């Protein structure tokens, strides 16, 4: 299976003022913008003595300079461009070349692919949603995505919205994505019988089976879109998942509850997951999701075991 693209930063986080350290699984990556404003990504280890390049600086010409002995690297190729105090007639040892990763940018996200030579075309997002944030969550990436399927309320916070345990239909595969439609309520959750409950809103999620990247759409009972969010959970070091998101509110928000969404903080990915609730959460939609993933991705079956999460594809690519 081709190495996937990972959304490793929001566009505003990547600048030419300071390198940014991110992770893709256990692989440290440094991001910055070169003199043309193009986002670049190298392995975050200097080929000289393995110092993190993210501790260095971006030079005026766009090269990344290591903070230890001052060697400078080109972002596109990873080539060593300059060693301080080296005489003109001396040549750079070719072994000192940083690993360069493929980089793409769209929709307000910077994505990297760890296998530059065989990276497929990067998915393109046409629109950049204005609301955005990054949450660091103490869950493996696989567990985070499973929790999104089983109880979105443990990982997402949408102002005034309560997620019920009820799905409109069984989680399904559609165009290679895992699609879930969940009934929701405004305000305090009542747990009535299924027959008498009112469910004025629905959360529809479309999730990539390989990366867990998800588009979430909240709709009212007239099928008006209240909110759309792009959510990108990426495995980081030490079992942490970095979840980057962007969202926008619908154009036709109507009613008291919907208007409340306009207030600041209408959407967020939770930094802290309720561990007590998570411990007793029964596997439901995530079980079906795993069956579908194994059918869609036969070469790299995805396990629910957090130690063998979708992150395994990262290690392979690294
Ligand atoms: S470790 Fe980077 S220049 Fe020496």
Describe this structure in words.
This protein is mostly beta strands and 318 residues long. The protein has 2 domains: 6-118, Rieske Iron-sulfur Protein (3-layer Sandwich), CATH 2.102.10.10; 131-317, Alpha-D-Glucose-1,6-Bisphosphate, Chain A, domain 4 (2-Layer Sandwich), CATH 3.30.530. The protein is built from 5 helices and 20 strands. α1 crosses α4. The relative contact order is 0.17. Bound molecules: FE2/S2 (inorganic) cluster. The site of FE2/S2 (inorganic) cluster has 8 residues, from loops.
Quote the distance from N terminus to C terminus: 14 Å
Major sheet attributes: 8 strands, antiparallel
- Helix-strand pattern: EEEEEEEEEEEHEEEEEEEEHEHHH
Shape: elongated
Compute the number of strand runs. 20
State the helicity in percent bands: 10-25%
Keywords: 2Fe-2S, Iron, Iron-sulfur, Metal-binding, Oxidoreductase
Protein name: Rieske domain-containing protein
Organism: Sphingobium fontiphilum
Pfam families: Rieske
